[in-house]
Amino acid sequence: MTNYWVGDLPRIGIRPIIDGRRRGIRESLEEKTMNMAKSVEALLKEHLRYPNGETVECVIADTTIGGVTEAARCADKFAKHNVGLTISVTPCWAYGSETIDMDPMIPKAIWGFNGTERPGAVYLAAALAAHNQKGLPAFSIYGREVQDIDDNSIPEDVKGKLLQFARAGLAVALMKGKSYLAMGSVSMGIAGSIVDAPFFQKYLGMRNEYVDMSEFTRRIEEEIYDPEEFAKALKWTKENCTEGEDQNKPEKQRSRADKDKDWETVVKMTLIARDLMIGNPRLKELGFEEEAEGHNALAGGFQGQRQWTDHFPNGDFMEAILNSSYDWNGIRQAYMFATENDALNGVSMLFGHLLTNTAQLFADVRTYWSPDAVERVTGAKLSGKAAGGLIHLINSGSATLDATGKLERDGEPVIKPFWEITEEEAAACLKATTWYPGNTEYFRGGGYSSKFVTEAEMPVTMCRLNLVEGLGPVLQIAEGYTVKLPREVHDVLDARTDYTWPTTWFAPNLTGRGAFRDVYSVMNHWGANHGSISYGHIGKDLISLAAMLRIPVSMHNVKEEDIFRPSTWNAFGTDGLEGADYRACETFGPLYGRK
Ligand SMILES: C[C@H](O)[C@@H](O)[C@@H](O)C(=O)CO
Ligand SMILES: [Mn+2]
Questions:
Q1: What is the mean pLDDT of residues 169-197?
Q2: Is the shortest distance between the CB of 396 and ligand 1 below 6 Å?
Q3: What is the rounded CA–CA span in Å between residue 458 and residue 404?
Q4: Any idea where the L-fucose isomerase N-terminal-1 domain is (predicted)?
Q5: Does the beta carbon of 305 lie inside 6 Å of ligand 1?
Q6: Could you tell which of 395, 439, 498, 526 is best to mutate to test the pocket of ligand 1, judged by most ligand atoms within 8 Å of the CB?
Q7: Peptide bond preceding 513 in cis form (omega within 30 of 0)
Q8: How far is the CA of 395 from the centre of ligand 1 (A)?
């Protein structure tokens, strides 16, 4: 069931750059230069996979590039092989503007060998100057320690930069040409669900597709889904999704017959939303050729509230299952599915997914709990990672079940790519989740809300893309940890909120300054009601990705030495890297068009 990709997956192009002088110089460098390219390919293939689990593919230019004609041949080959980002490598001096990659839409990096027999770093500086002068930002990679010319190894610091650049560049390339599918429109006036087509088009190279929620009704009533899959899905759901005790007041509870019907509807909604996003060849066999095509969507969102949920079952089951890495068809790639059609949170999830290949947690950024407030209502003192207070992440709906804390690597709780997840782990995530009949005061049409608590301390990064008139898109990033509270403390705090929704306790890493002065400040600086949470400390990758797309980062708590942006950012000032980021993004404008 992966019709995500129309055409080939984007490849990484590797460009071996050489001094073009024949009769001695070039000949002496051919082998070394090609070996650098091959070692970069081996590194990338060892460490990087596409979100569907396949190993990344690289393309190396047919010859080393010593001049403009060879650069053009390389560009031609790369165009034919769907290259989406390029890395130029060189051990020596070569001719800057004659050899660089001139495609303005392709993220680019140059690794200049730090040797002294031949001056790779001098080429790097000259080529970067040419890039800067021509408005073609490029990432500079220069090892800290001098290597001998016959040393074909890649130093650790260079490896780190090559991989950081490649992860971010692949994310850029993977988004290009795909769609965000809005199912419904604006939910409860949430600005993030006012889908902004110019942003998607100019900054991400993506299309916007829109379907009315009445399409779900049509497909349910006209049975435009695979009936065999529906039967299998309903059976699986009954066996794997435990229904919780109805928490509604007796007079607000739906009848058993209604609730049974709701299970059928929410399972059908899940099939339909997926088919709308990526298509389904089975529909063609059933006579629905047009519906079988889907919308080529890499991310989507469902308005739900209010018109739909005032009458039909809510979208929580559909959202939670699609955002998780398993369903009745087994273990599979998670979909990026935004509740309340908050497309800006959907894009934040997409960034995290493309950088890590993992499921992403969608949540309301609901409450700042200070240590004093927690002590007042529970009598308990917060400690450890939570000592400075907590942010309560909770939303009805789309939280991925992968965030239950039941996935493991080397005995530690994690969120990991689907190909590492075992059947037992998927079952444990499902077991940790209870599906309560939806709160019928919010959701008059019923449905089921997933309830779990993230019972693990895991490194995570919360991010959020916001649109600001006059400025454009800005990204905010907060690295921190999920916190496992003692059960009795959690229970008291949880009982004060929407009991039937999933909870994650988040403690951001503090720096003592600005937005990260304390936990309260992080909450107070958050730019919208939602955040997207990714496993791991991926702030540095998000920063590189944002720079490639020319999206400035308004707040982050990433170590200065991990910040890696195109080298031309240095020319925009070095006192306060944030200001330089804003000026550079403003100057270059969106990757795919004018602001
Ligand atoms: C049920 C409520 O309307 C929630 O959906 C609401 O708290 C939100 O999630 C707002 O983002
Ligand atoms: Mn919400």
A1: 98
A2: yes
A3: 11
A4: 10-177
A5: yes
A6: 395
A7: no
A8: 7
Q: Check pocket membership of 529 for ligand 1, CB cut-off 6 A.
A: yes
Structure confidence at residue 1 (pLDDT): 39
CB atoms under 10 Å from CB of 325, counted, come to: 27
Name which residue sits closest to atom 6 of ligand 1, judged by CA.
Answer: 395
pLDDT score at 397: 76
Rounded to 10°, the helix 539-549/577-588 angle is 30
Centre of ligand 1 from the C-alpha of residue 230, in Å: 29
Q: What's the token pair of residue 167? A: 């992860």
pLDDT in tens, 504-538: 999 999 999 999 999 999 999 999 999 999 999 99
Ordered alpha helix ranges (H), 526-576: 539-549
- Which of 187, 309, 442, 499 to mutate to test ligand 1, by most ligand atoms within 8 A of the CB atom? 442
Q: What is the full DSSP assignment across 490-530?
A: HHHHHHTS-TTS-EEEEEE---SSGGGSSHHHHHHH--SSE
How does pLDDT run across 88-112, given as a tens digit for each residue?
Answer: 999 999 999 999 999 999 999 999 9
443 Cα nearest atom in ligand 1: 1
Asked if 446 and 254 touch (Cβ cutoff 8 Å), the reply is yes
Nearest to 458 by CA among 532, 515, 407: 407
Dihedrals φ, ψ of 108, to 5°? -140, 150
Q: How far apart are CA 348 and CA 476, in angstroms?
A: 10
Confidence band for 156, pLDDT divided at 50, 70 and 90? very high
Q: How far is CA 201 from the centre of its chain?
A: 18
pLDDT confidence of residue 504: 98
Catalytic positions, written as ranges: 340, 364
Which residue puts its alpha carbon closest to atom 1 of ligand 1?
442
Per-residue pLDDT reduced to its tens digit, 461-470: 999 999 999 9
Measured from the CB, is residue 319 less than 6 Å from ligand 1?
A: no
Domains and CATH numbers, the chain: 11-175 (3.40.50.1070), 179-588 (3.20.14.10)
Q: Are 406 and 425 in contact (CB under 8 A)?
A: yes
262 in a known ligand binding site? no
- CA 557 – ligand 1 centroid, Å: 28
Mean pLDDT, residues 384-398: 93
Our answer on whether the CB atom of 57 is closer than 6 Å to any ligand 1 atom is no
